[in-house]
Amino acid sequence: MPPSALPEQFGQIDIYLFDQLLKGRITPGMRILDAGCGSGRNLHYLLREGFEVYAVDPDAQAVETVRALARRLAPALPPSNFSVQAVEHMSFDDAWADVVICNTVLHFARDDAHFEAMLHGAWRVLKPGGLFFSRLGSSTGMETQIVPLGGRRHQSPDGSERYLVDDALLRALTARLDAALAEPLKTTVVHGQRAMTTWVLRKKTQRH
Question: Which of 19, 157, 166, 208 is the most buried (most CB within 10 A)?
Answer without folding.
Answer: 166
